[in-house]
Design brief:
It is built from 8 helices and 19 strands. It is α/β, with parallel strands linked by helices and about 400 residues long. The protein starts with a strand and ends in a 23-residue tail after the last strand. The strands form 4 sheets. Strands 6-7-8-4-9-10 form a 6-stranded mixed beta sheet, with helices on both faces. Strands 13-19-18-15-16 form a 5-stranded mixed beta sheet. The chain has a 4-stranded mixed beta sheet with strand order 2-3-1-5, with helices on one face. Helix content is about 25%, strand content about 35%.
Length: about 400
């Protein structure tokens, strides 16, 4: 049984909203005396609140993380998931030693290479080449070790033409390409990657995910990966941590963790109109299921309720567009509205969508004349498992939609 390479024990992180320090010199001195000299709990953090950004709080102390405990073994690929504000990035910053925990301890065995956000880790005045050597030196590598990796890093990044240009002149995409190449290829035992990869194009994202898979499965290094793309997380990771409002909700096998996240995240399943004064509008939309995650061999059903403030609806349509996680339109369906009918049902047949994350864009319109309502995104759902006809196609990019066809 492998020993933990990262051990997180009772880690919490508190922030004070609106100001740095406690507000007075006497309180700052009291905090210093209690925490640094006597080693006791900070007396000004006892009334802090959970980090729920959707609710107005009563305290100016907010716990971004609270009592986090879990272990990570060598060779694990760990997906850290949760809504915005759940504490994912804070946890990675603590692990990367960008910031320190308010309470608790973290024990790490090995060197850490981090890619947290665009703009960190590189010196803007230095060239791409010089920053590669700088990052290697920070990791404790010798110059000849970095030289051995240099060509591989530059080739992977695809920015060879600009490698001797100061990185302050790079676009965000170029910056991320080089930053990921450096973090992935230099010899660290632990690679930490936040959702910064979303800055890159789809082709580079896929290339990065493949490299992280090689690092974890082929080289036995540990990968910590934050993403909102559940398909990418399930493909790459074998373990998962689900954070909710700064607390650990679920830790364990990645399938169980993703399932727990999707089952608890019911807010995306339903849409309710906030403006009901339009002539025609989408009043409600929901997935006709208890959950929003489906197997490939299951139908996905939706229910739509139309609101009317007019009496004539001839030649007016509800258009439903199915979008992928990059918000590309995969296909559309539409139905003509009838004044006496408020509820409409749409069924996407089984074995139509491959695994991934999807959402709906709903438009009510009169062709070439008027658009009455446009709900940009609603009814998020996932296809979480490829089975039956898809099972042998895992090694290929087969797109998003499986078209039933005839061969003869």
């Amino acid at each position: 049984m492998s020993k933990p390479i990262i051990k997180i024990e009772d880690v919490s992180k508190a922030y004070q909203i609106g100001q740095i320090g406690t507000g007075t010199i006497s309180r700052d001195l009291e905090r210093f005396w209690m925490t640094k000299i006597l080693g006791k709990e900070d007396p000004f953090l006892k009334i802090g609140e959970t980090n729920d950004r959707s609710v107005k709080g009563q305290s100016d102390i907010v716990w971004s993380l609270r009592d986090i405990n879990f272990d990570i073994n060598q060779g694990d690929a760990v997906g850290i998931i949760g809504k915005n504000g759940a504490g994912k990035s804070t946890l990675l910053k603590i692990l990367s030693r960008v910031t320190s925990p308010t309470t608790g301890t973290i024990k790490v065995k090995g060197r850490i290479a981090s890619l947290l956000e665009v703009g960190t880790g590189f010196h803007p005045e230095l060239s791409g080449r010089e920053n590669i050597f700088l990052n290697g030196a920070i990791l404790g590598m010798r110059k000849n070790e970095i030289n051995r990796k240099l060509d591989e890093i530059v080739d992977f990044s695809g920015v060879e033409r600009y490698i001797d240009t100061p990185v302050k002149r790079y676009s965000s995409g170029m910056y991320v390409r080089l930053a990921f190449a450096v973090a992935a290829h230099l010899e660290s035992e632990i690679l930490i990657v936040d959702e910064v990869l979303a800055v890159g194009d789809a082709e580079f994202q896929k290339k990065c995910l493949g490299k992280m898979g090689d690092i974890s499965k082929g080289e036995g290094r540990t990968v910590l990966f934050v993403s909102h793309n559940m398909g990418a997380v399930k493909n790459l990771c074998n373990k998962g941590v689900y954070l909710q409002n700064g607390l650990v909700h679920t830790v364990g096998d990645i399938g169980e963790v993703v399932s727990a996240y999707q089952k608890s995240d019911m807010t995306y399943q339903e849409y309710n109109a906030t403006n009901t004064k339009k002539d025609l509008f989408l009043n409600k939309a929901r997935i006709d299921s208890e959950f929003n995650a489906f197997h490939s061999n299951e139908e996905v059903k939706f229910v739509f309720e139309i609101g009317y403030n007019i009496t004539v609806v001839e030649s007016k349509f509800l258009l439903v567009r199915i979008l992928d996680d990059l918000e590309l339109v995969l296909f559309s369906a539409e139905i003509e509205l009838k004044i006496h009918k408020k509820e409409y049902h749409l069924v996407i047949p089984s074995e139509t969508l491959v695994k991934g994350n999807y959402k709906l864009n709903c438009i009510i319109y009169h062709p070439a004349i008027a658009q009455y309502d446009n709900v940009a995104r609603c009814c998020n759902f996932s296809i979480i498992d490829n089975i039956s006809i898809f099972s042998h196609l895992e090694t290929f990019d087969i797109g998003k939609v499986y078209l039933k066809q005839q061969w003869y």
